[in-house]
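Thread: Exodeoxyribonuclease III, structure

OP (GT): Posting the sequence first so everyone is looking at the same thing. Length is 267 residues per the record. Can we get the C-alpha cells written out before standup tomorrow? I want them in the notebook alongside the other entries.
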Amino acid sequence: MTVRIATWNINSVTARLPKLLEWLDGAKPDVLCLQELKCATDSFPFEAVKELGYEAAAHGTGRWNGVAILSKLGLTDVVRGLPEQPGYLADDALLPETEPRAIAATCGPVRVWSVYVPNGREVDHAHYRYKLEWLEALRRSVLEDAAGARPFAVLGDFNVAPTDEDVYDRAAFEGLTHVTERERAALAALQTAGLRDVVPRPLKYDRPYTYWDYRALCFPKNRGMRIDLTYGNKPFVEAVSDSYVDREARKGKGTSDHAPVVVDLAL
C-alpha cells in the first residue's frame, strides 16, 4: 500500500482553514501533522476536516503553539505532550507552563509525532535553554517507538536548520538561533535514537527550503530555511518512495509562511 504523510506549520488553523481544506482536497495526504494551530483544542475545526474524511486529534491552548494530527487511516493511542516535557516560565506566569507542542498517534500502519519545537528566541535567552531541554526530552520520548519494527516518524517544525546548506545564507544568521552548534547537536542526537532525516528532493531550486519570512520578499527571492523536518526510523526510511516540499501552497495571499512537506511511503 502507498501511504502519504505530510507536515505543515499552518500558522493559525483558523486563519488558514480555507487554504488547509483546499490543500487537503488536492494533495490528499493520508496523514497530516499540523503545528502552530493558535487555537484551543475545543476550537479546532474537527467537523470541517471530517467532511473530507479525516479524523483529528488536537492539542492547543489558543496561544502561539498547538499541534494536531489528521488521519484517514484511523487514529488510536493518542498521546498529548512529551512524557517528560519541560515547562517554560512565560513572561506573565508565576509557574512554568507545559506548552502544547507535541502530539502522537497511530495511523493505520504507522505511528507519528507532530512536534512544534520551541523557537529559542535569542542565544542568551531562557527560551534557548528551554529549547535544548525540550529537544532532549523529545529524544528520550521516542526511543521505544524508534527501535520498533513499525514505521515511525517525528514530523514538524523543529526550528533548527540541520546544516549550513539548509539556510540561504549562513552569514545572515550569524549569532542567531536556529543554526547554532548546540541546537544542531541536540537535533542530531535524534540519530542516536535511531532516527534519520528524510531530506525532500529539490524541485524548483537546489535546496528544499520549507520556511520563508513574510518580509523583504523572502519567498520570491528564495531566502528560506529548511526547518520543517521528518525524522524516521529504519522501517520508515526504507519505505520512502518520494518526498518533496509543496511550494505552491506558500504562494499567494493569506498563506502560512511555511510550506507543507510531503513524504510518500511504499509499505
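GT: Both are above now. Quick notes for whoever picks this up: The first helix runs from residue 17 to 27. The chain has five helices and 14 strands.
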